UniProtKB/TrEMBL annotation:
Coiled coil: none annotated. Signal peptide: none annotated. The keyword Magnesium does not apply. Belongs to the CD36 family. GO terms for molecular function: scavenger receptor activity. Its main location: membrane. It comes from Sparus aurata (Gilthead sea bream). InterPro entries: CD36_fam, LimpII. This is Scavenger receptor class B, member 2a. Residues 475-514 are annotated as: Disordered. Keywords: Glycoprotein, Membrane, Transmembrane, Transmembrane helix. It is found in: Membrane. One of its GO terms (cellular component) is lysosome. The chain crosses the membrane at residues 7-31, 435-464.
């Protein structure tokens, strides 16, 4: 056997083995199963890894952008006209949210943690100075007192109204952004505090929220089931709430939005418990996106999250008392926040009933600026970009006994909205790209084997064809050319008699006589 034949046989044997093994691995999905099993087993909070450290101290910077609606025509609104507002901002703060008092429970299957939040003003990302800029907005303490007295007698409401007039308290107030946001000593609350010490004399939208936490959380670590990774087990010792009017609405579902289980698919709904909204919300897949070279799935709250119970009966549980429902796009949360009739929505009443948008001039909702979304890396379940947007509103309406409100048309009045954003930092993005490359190569290793087998098959065909060509050429050179014309006789041939015919690679033989 020649060396060329040995090479052909060896190539054929290796090619056959690679194709058989590669196709078998692809069909059985051995490597994909191994990778997925590894992810399910090791991406848990109990692993001493970057995932755990990243969960305790999230590396991406989180920014809180506050936008306020400055009221430009309070007199017109109080006289029964339509209010007009102008958006100002943003006033941006860097948010720090480390996990503290982290304690493992029940053999590492659960973990206890506090999540205090601290805010630091970032002037270079802000539109102005919050301690200088003045805004005119609804006097929320005034509305809270009116709302609290609504169930009392007309006589008492009238007396309180006269007293507030003597203090010069109006429906709208003018304060600095810093005061409205972080608090000031309110004259009305100060008077109430002198009679009821449990009432705080200060008011601010973020009063006592700088450096504090939203409650005590216990999370699942995913040790028992990777699908439970990061899910909330209890909040302030509760597995369900009691504010709403149905068991489904009172459920505490999902994670706190910081992490999700690995191996996310496009068809599932993701749940987040939002303590500031006093409820859980779900997010659905929207589209594929790319963030800093990392492929991700975008999830966002669908329109049915805040849809009217008329169109989405499952939301009837958020009507308190039962049957007292608002329209699409708004949620009354005063049930869990005592005092003023607070309503939350998406910014500029995005996805809300047009009647709320048209009730106030100066609103222009759009998806790009006002949608809440999460961009998740599906293999790890890690958020690589997040944008949480929510608007704070208050219900203004006529209340008998308070003459200042006698011409007001009931309105869900916008106060401010917040845009909470976070994007993965460059170092973390580089590490994730490297990790995902390794996972991709490992998962696709059987395809590489099949590819090598196909290449060797091509080489085998080329070698086989060339070998056939050389054999054919060798067989052709075993014969001499047949001449069509007689050669000139040489001196030797001259002495021999001429014979008819030609010869082929053999000495002439004497013709036998009959």
């Amino acid at each position: 056997m020649t060396r060329r034949s040995c090479a052909i046989y060896a190539t054929g044997i290796v090619c056959a083995h690679l194709l058989i093994v590669g196709i078998a691995l692809v069909v059985a999905q051995v490597f994909q199963t191994m990778i997925h099993s590894r992810l399910k087993k090791e991406i848990t909070l109990t692993e001493k890894s970057q995932v755990f450290e990243g969960w305790k101290n999230p590396p991406p910077p989180v920014y809180m952008e506050y936008y306020f609606f400055n009221v430009t025509n309070p007199e017109v609104f109080l006289a029964g006209g339509k209010a007009a507002v102008k958006q100002i901002g943003p006033y941006t703060y860097r948010e720090y949210r480390p996990r503290e008092n982290v304690t493992f429970l029940e053999n590492g299957t659960k973990i206890y943690a506090l999540n205090p939040k601290t805010f630091v003003f970032v002037p270079e990302k802000s539109a102005g100075d919050p301690e200088v800029d003045i805004i005119r907005t609804v006097n929320i303490p005034f509305v809270a007192v009116m709302n609290e007295l609504n169930s009392y007698s007309f006589f008492l409401r009238t007396v309180v109204s006269m007293y507030m007039n003597s203090l010069g308290i109006e429906v709208f107030m003018t304060r600095t952004v810093h005061e409205v946001l972080w608090g000031f000593k309110d004259p009305l609350l100060t008077k109430i505090h002198s009679m009821k010490p449990e009432v705080d004399e200060h008011f601010g939208l973020m009063w006592k929220k700088n450096g504090t936490h939203e409650g005590e959380f216990v999370f699942h670590t995913g040790e028992e089931n990777y699908m439970d990774f990061g899910k909330i087990d209890t909040w302030n010792g509760l597995r369900k709430m009691s504010w709403w009017s149905s068991n489904q609405s009172n459920m505490i579902n999902g994670t706190d939005g910081a992490v999700f289980h690995p191996l996310i698919n496009r068809n599932e709904l993701l749940y987040i418990f939002a303590a500031d909204l006093c409820r859980s919300i779900h997010l659905a897949y929207v589209k594929d996106v790319e963030v800093k070279g990392i492929q991700a799935y975008r999830f966002a709250p669908p329109s049915d999250v805040l849809m009217s119970p008329k169109n989405n009966p499952t939301n009837a549980g958020f009507c308190v008392p039962a049957g007292d429902c608002l329209g699409t796009g708004v949620l009354k949360v005063s049930v869990c926040r005592e005092g003023a009739p607070i309503v939350v929505s998406f910014p500029h009443f995005y996805q809300a009933d047009p009647k709320y948008i048209n009730a106030v001039d100066g609103l222009s909702p759009n998806k790009e600026e006002h949608e809440t979304y999460l961009d998740l890396q599906p293999t790890t379940g890690v958020p690589i970009r997040a944008c949480k947007r929510a608007q704070l509103n208050i219900i203004l309406k006529r209340i008998q006994g308070f003459p200042k409100t006698k011409h007001i048309n009931e309105t869900i009045f916008p106060i401010m909205f917040v845009n909470e954003t976070a994007t993965i930092d460059d170092d973390s993005a580089s590490q994730m790209r490297t990790m995902l490359l390794i996972v991709t190569l490992a998962s696709n290793f059987p395809l590489l084997i099949v590819g090598m087998g196909v290449i060797l098959l091509f080489v085998l065909v080329v070698l086989f064809c060339r070998n056939r060509q050389k054999k054919t050429a060798k067989d052709d050179t075993a014969y001499t050319q047949v001449s069509d014309k007689p050669d000139e006789p040489s001196e030797t041939q001259a002495t021999q008699p001429m014979r008819n015919g030609s010869y082929i690679a053999m000495s002439p033989v004497e013709a036998q006589k009959c």
